[in-house]
Amino acid sequence: MLDLTYETPKPKVIAGAKHDWELVIGMEVHAQVATNAKLFSGASTQFGAEPNSNVAFVDAGMPGMLPVINEACVAQAVRTGLGLKAEIHLNSAFDRKNYFYPDLPQGYQISQLYHPIVGEGEVLVELGDGTARTVRIERIHLEQDAGKSIHDMDPALSFVDLNRTGVALMEIVSRPDIRGPEEAAAYLLKLRQIMLYLGTCDGNMQNGNLRADVNVSVCLPGAYERYQETQDFSHLGTRCEIKNMNSTRFIQQAIEVEAKRQIAILEAGGSIDQETRLYDVEKGETRSMRSKEEAHDYRYFPDPDLLPLEIEQAWVDDIAAHLPELPDAKKARFMGDFGLADYDASVLTADLDAAAYFEAVAGKTNGKLAANWVINELFGRLKKDDREIEDSPVTPDQLSSLIALIEADTISGKIAKDVFEISYTSGRDPEEIVETEGLKQVTDTGAIEAAVDEIIAANPDQVAKAKENPKLAGWFVGQVMKATGGKANPKAVNQIVAKKLNG
Predict the structure, then answer these.
(1) Please, what's the largest Cα pairwise distance for the chain?
(2) Residue 152 pLDDT class (50, 70, 90 cuts)
(3) Which of 359, 354, 324 is nearest to 340 (CA)?
(4) C-alpha span between 33 and 118 (Å, rounded)
(5) CB-CB contact of 321 with 331 (8 Å)
(6) Where are the alpha helices (DSSP H) in 268-351?
(7) According to the model, what pLDDT value does residue 1 have?
């Protein structure tokens, strides 16, 4: 496997009226665990069901109902921790986080404050410009999701849908290692990619299955380096949390807006209040939601209905032994095995289905050529039609067959694009298309030479110009290709034209 190394990106710098300021960002990502049942009940996690139809008695906070841990949720959390190179805690425990909200019928959320199931890990966040940052993961803990309050169905009433209540979430908490809006977006997308590879979260941000709370603060240049040396947070500015973000575009916008708000306050001699804020997309501003709560405000205490969670190392080892190949490893392998550039390997491994498609093609033909056709021709055509790779009308076998025809000089690259289009729209096999449509490349040098002689004889003035300026030989190549319907071997045409004009 290739040892990929990257330069560390420079922090985002925002110019204030008095100073330059740097951004410091940490994120708490809430990922819905991919399981059929909830964390402590057997109720379904199906999205889009009738309101309040996926609710067990324990989810609804009925008296005397006791939670029972879902082993599949625990396994998914362990799998995610292993995918993020994190420490797995064999002993963890659940706590009650007490607060009142209409869509929280129990009056508390079962979470893991003091003893999370997953400890410290890391994720490599590549930024596409040859730079990458390692973002440290502080912890991953399991917790219940709340329900959903609905305020737009009646002008005077609010409604509550408890279907989501009790659904298992993994809260992935990062260290304040992210230094800019683009990095924050790339970090969230990398987490999403890893979890999709692992099958632990479907990553659907539109449905709220993946969302983030973004902690933003600003500091003067040099302060962050002092924090890194000492891990003393006093060197950093006071952070504000932007709540419930489910769009990478809006995350970047919100970070920029919040950072400028804080800079304006600090440069005017004010101080930042630690608080939770919401980003208003329409107004392009963040606004205060509530002052930042501390742990004691929630009156955390060990959940009396749940024993401490104990798992065995052998069980963790078995999960580790069956992990799939993860994005970084797959990318390095594609670069090593198929000679791909960093960018091409990144594009092809961004999606698990796309990676599988490419590998099926590259396994039977030239890897670099396969990458070029998958990325430029297939992906471009699918994007135009708003189709996913799994719905591609061209199968991997058909695309590898097309590439094999190019490599065998049976067809030219230009004709190959026509064949691809026919295959895409009809589902026909490329070999059959070339045969029945008479698209085989003309490689008979005698036939090509005759076509060249005919073009030269008919254009004496152009011949004279080409002899004075050899660059004009391309005109003759184009005319020959046109005369042969694009079927002549371009390499042979170029060689013969050069020979005739220079003879």
Answers:
(1) 100
(2) confident
(3) 359
(4) 14
(5) no
(6) 313-321, 327-338, 342-349
(7) 43
pTM: 0.87
Burial 451-478 (b: 16+ CB within 10 A, else e): bbeebbeeeeebbeebeeeeeebeebbe
Token look-up 């691809």 returns: 420
Q: What is the DSSP string of 200-216?
A: S----TTTTSEEEEEEE
Give strand pairing partners of 157: none
Q: Helices marked H in 65-119 — which ranges? A: 71-83
Backbone angles phi, psi at 214, to 5 degrees: -115, 120
**pLDDT tens column, 366-391:** 999 999 999 999 999 999 999 999 99
> Side chain identity at 453, as an amino acid letter?
D
Condensed to tens digits (0 to 9), the pLDDT of residues 93-147 reads 999 999 888 899 999 999 999 999 999 999 999 998 889 999 999 999 999 999 9
Pick from 77, 373, 333: nearest CA to 199: 77
**Size (the chain), residues:** 503
Q: Which amino acid does the sequence have at 480? A: V
Quick one: which of 380, 378, 372, 382 has its CA closest to 396?
Answer: 378
Specify whether the CB–CB gap between 57 and 166 falls below 8 A.
no
Residues β-bridged to residue 242: 214, 277
CA dist., res. 57 & res. 169, Å (int)? 19
Residue type, 222: G
Number of CB atoms found within 10 A of residue 268's CB:
9
Residue whose pair of structure tokens reads 């219940």 in the numeric block = 144
> What would the mean pLDDT of 245-263 be, rounded to a whole number?
96
Question: What is the pLDDT averaged over residues 418-435?
Answer: 94
Residues 6+ apart with CB under 8 A from 413: 406
Q: Which amino acid is at 60?
A: A
